[in-house]
Amino acid sequence: MLNDLSQAELVATERDLANRLATLRRANLSLDLTRGKPSPEQLALSDQVELMTGNDFNTEDGTDARNYGGLSGITEARQLGSQLLGVDASNVIAGGNSSLTLMYQYLLHAWLNGATGPDTAWRHDSGQLKFLCVVPGYDRHFTITESLGFELINVGFTEEGPDMDQIEALVDNDPLIKGIWCVPKYSNPTGHVYSDSIVERMALLAKRAGANFRIMWDNAYAVHDLTSDPPPLLNLMTRCQTVGTEDSAILFASTSKVTRAGSGISFMAASTGNLTSFMRSLGVQTIGPDKINQLRHVRFLKDLGGINKLMQSHAEIVRPKFDRVIKHLHDGLSDTGVGTWTVPQGGYFISFESPPGLAGAIIQLAGEAGVKLTPAGATFPYGRDPNDSNIRLAPTFPTLAEIDQAMPVFVTAVTLAAVRQLLGMAITTP
Amino acid sequence: MLNDLSQAELVATERDLANRLATLRRANLSLDLTRGKPSPEQLALSDQVELMTGNDFNTEDGTDARNYGGLSGITEARQLGSQLLGVDASNVIAGGNSSLTLMYQYLLHAWLNGATGPDTAWRHDSGQLKFLCVVPGYDRHFTITESLGFELINVGFTEEGPDMDQIEALVDNDPLIKGIWCVPKYSNPTGHVYSDSIVERMALLAKRAGANFRIMWDNAYAVHDLTSDPPPLLNLMTRCQTVGTEDSAILFASTSKVTRAGSGISFMAASTGNLTSFMRSLGVQTIGPDKINQLRHVRFLKDLGGINKLMQSHAEIVRPKFDRVIKHLHDGLSDTGVGTWTVPQGGYFISFESPPGLAGAIIQLAGEAGVKLTPAGATFPYGRDPNDSNIRLAPTFPTLAEIDQAMPVFVTAVTLAAVRQLLGMAITTP
């Protein structure tokens, strides 16, 4: 444990680590642990998507997918989304290549036109609108609400998921809080899977927050399990229907990390009232999604069984990379007492917590040695991590060999930063 | 000429026409002349798009099109758009499956965030914002600006294109007019190709209307010629650059009516200042367009030469249909003196002008006989045709045989409505 070292031992350790990092720097590495991107091996699992149409472009109901029309997506794509999200197909739409776009369009709709009619448009509220962000979380979520003029409010995690006590207290006291961002399964980046009790309390939130409150439930990693016995996630929509709050739940998923990243299809599920109103706004912006790509996808994936089988092949590629990153963290840091990290059962990230005040410095040190890490604060609204401690590691894209090159740099940077902090030294050179 | 008939002759003609329509009605037709959709034969011209990737998903610069990234589209798609729009590739982005979506996103950006910075956001203007609509025009354009709260102002056509005297007078007197919708080549539905002088005056418009005025230049039919010697269209961007108004020109095109309707790729061209600002807004909404579909398209179309060759094949399918509709109009109506119609050199529509006050009635009569026509007023803001005279005919989707069934119904409905109007009779039964 670093804390047990004497001043002299710390000075010697600092020198050793600085030398080690200097040696690593001379290797002229150029490695990247920043983005949650699938690797080429994963992408190749779905190259057959390309061959699915042949010369048959007709959907199951005989629609020519090559022509205009069909704002909600083709029936069989909606059915696939229905299985993925566990919501009746009549309450699911299949969209274009980006669920992020559907999220933006939904929030724009609720702000500009009103989720359930012009009277409900958030922009007509007087006062500063606010949105809850569970942190650390997904920067692109936060940016959407920031761009629409919302003040973003950080809420923390407990072991079981978002801190519901904090969330309930916030919405009880502020009607200008209009919604909350959630990644309920393998939360980006912490890997949390919300417990049954969290989902149950989420479903009840609109009873406190009001009928115009929206839970943006981005189930981006719904099927992205790394273990054979994945943790279950309670169905938010079902719970909301039980307690009469189904208008508060807006669910999203996509195939971006199932088939092709940015060339897949997206899904949104919502109550009939929400969906009917949203479709009017959506119809102003487009004639419809790319139905041919939906057809390719449904014919390739077939159903939830097909998706799960494909995801097992993903897991076989991805799991060893997660294990390797975690092994480096364990081997390099366990004895130092520096930092904590998640051991997720799925998703795309490992979340690392350094001692407070060190994340930015660690990222700089690693960057100088050729290992690019997600910018400090990126997992927080406004890019500001109040503790400067969270670092998001993305193991999927690099090869195992690259992980073996990059992680010693990371571990060395973490330890060096911690030693320098204990010594009261400047941690980085500007 | 109907006008030359005596009262008794008109009464007899009315009876003949009513009988004829009743006979046609008994045929239980179900025909549709409403939508500007390509026919299956046209769509089949591009079925090879599907085979273009093989197992090579790398763009020319080595980007893996299957993975995330690339907000502006792949380089070779931007180059294709550059050729199509006649604008330097650095000022062109390649988007998703819908240029309408790009138009919405651009106008939302200018309204919400400001075309060239927060100070320029239209929504901060005090007073009712307005947008000019050249009529008859494209309903989906008008709906976008209506949904963003603009008051829509009709402006008419001259032989050469939009009535520039009227437009200039309007913008001279009203700083709340923020822009104008234009379809400069084979205007939807009138078929106008803007003359050089019109384009030159458009390029100068921002000198009168101010730096925050935008021309939404939807060149949807840029390559959709029906003749071997198509009329030229002056390049708006080039003209704007010459006179220093390049920030006022926002150009759009797509391959929806080149390859697949709703599964093609879209393009937008704008000044560097406009584009830099717009990309920040776009980056909030999406990680990027479907690059695989862009790759398919570029490999299939290759370049503007490839597009033009494909468009000749389209013309061979489409031209006979336009000719047939026009022959029916000529044969059925020339002797009556009722109505006028366009003989377009390209595009997707024939625009029919009935005597004032009859369009709605004609559409109802034809509908009762099984021929669906575009709803009266659809080509005008708010669905209100002030003269109730414009009917948009879309010849591309039906077969020649279907046109031969539908057009006698239309011609009969037109003549019957005109005769009844002359007789002062009720034209339709409610």
- What about the largest sheet of chain A? 7 strands, mixed
CATH class of the largest domain in chain A: Alpha Beta
The overall pLDDT average of chain A reads 97
**What fraction of the residues of chain A are assigned to beta strands by DSSP?**
5-15%
Helix content of chain A: 40-55%
Structural class of chain A: alpha/beta
Largest interface: A-B, 47 and 48 residues
Query: So, CATH architecture of the largest domain in chain A?
Result: 3-Layer(aba) Sandwich
- Described by the principal axes of the CA atoms, the overall outline of chain A is globular
Order of helices and strands of chain A: HEHHEHEHEEEHEHEHEEHHHEEHEEH
The total domain count of chain A is 2
Q: Report the end-to-end length of chain A measured between terminal Cα atoms.
A: 28 Å
Characterise this structure:
- In chain A, 54% of the residues are buried.
- In chain A, strand 5 and strand 6 form a beta hairpin.
- The two termini of chain A are 28 Å apart.
- The first copy, chain A, has two domains: 142 residues, Aspartate Aminotransferase, domain 1; 249 residues, Type I PLP-dependent aspartate aminotransferase-like (Major domain) (Aspartate Aminotransferase, domain 2), CATH 3.40.640.10.
- The first copy, chain A, is an alpha/beta fold and 430 residues long.
- In chain A, the strands form four sheets. A seven-stranded mixed sheet of chain A has the order 2-10-9-8-7-3-4, sandwiched between helices. A three-stranded antiparallel sheet of chain A has the order 11-12-14, covered by helices on one side.
- The radius of gyration of chain A is 23 Å and the shape is globular.
- At the A-B interface, helix 4, helix 5, helix 9 and helix 10 of A face helix 4, helix 5, helix 9 and helix 10 of B.
